[in-house]
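Supplementary Text 2. Reproducibility record for the structural model of the 63-residue chain.

All settings were left at their defaults, and a single model was retained for analysis rather than an ensemble. We include the record here because the model underlies the residue-level annotations in Supplementary Table 4.
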Amino acid sequence: MSVSKIRVLLPDDKCIEKQVSNLAEFLPLIRMVNVVSYEAASYRIARIELIIDEDIWLLVILE
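Retained model, structure tokens:
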């Protein structure tokens, strides 16, 4: 089974990386919300990018 990466870029340029077993299951979930909470702070999703490198991964940019 292929593991996909999700990288979340916070406004302070901190990058959080998580792995998911199925990116196709995660994508509809992230598209349904406008706000993400992390460490008791809420952030608006500014942009979502699909990055195609050696691996395919998703970049979620928060503001």
